[in-house]
Amino acid sequence: MIVDIQVASDNPTIPHDEEIASWVNCVLHDQHKPDASEISIRIVDEAEIAELNASYRNKTGPTNVLSFPFEAPPGLPAEDATLPGLLGDVIICAPVVAREALEQDKTNKSHWAHMVVHGTLHLLGYDHQTDQQAGEMESLEQQLLSRLDFPNPYQEQQEHAR
To answer: What is the spatial distance between Cα 20 and Cα 153, in angstroms, rounded to a whole number?
Structure first.
């Protein structure tokens, strides 16, 4: 497995590359993805993610994480279009993640792990557009994060819903 980590932020809260790669690896192994998988994780500041958010989601302002699953370019011969190892790109905004961790009373590392797991699951086709999809994705996130010794990132939301 190849995890290409690109850091375009000087935010001091960014975890070490080895930690990020281990979180990606946990997701890929759980989802039975081959060791030949390739994923890019780009860590950015608010200006870059706000531009991507506007361009690709028509939403204003920065967000915590964006995922871009690999799509073969038009005109690529069918036998080359699968490129089985390329999964896509996950873009994470360091200042937003740091701010959210403080606001949500989470450790920085646990929130980073959640964003990496969440973004990687999006590359594998998981989504949260419907309640059913959200429930399935959140359950899987909780299982994976528990395996990585992190708490349930949705604990507070679930307690308030009761």
So the answer is: 17
pTM of the predicted structure, to 2 decimals: 0.90
Q: Are 119 and 67 in contact (CB under 8 A)?
A: yes
Neighbours of 27 (CB within 10 A): 24
Are 142 and 50 in contact, with CB atoms under 8 Å apart? no
Please choose, from the candidates 15, 2, 38, 30, the residue with its C-alpha nearest in 3D space to the C-alpha of residue 115.
15
Enclosing H/E stretch for 88: strand 86-93
d(CA 28, CA 31): 5
Report how far residue 128's alpha carbon sits from residue 54's, in angstroms, rounded to the nearest whole number. 20
pLDDT in tens, 36-51: 689 999 999 999 999 9
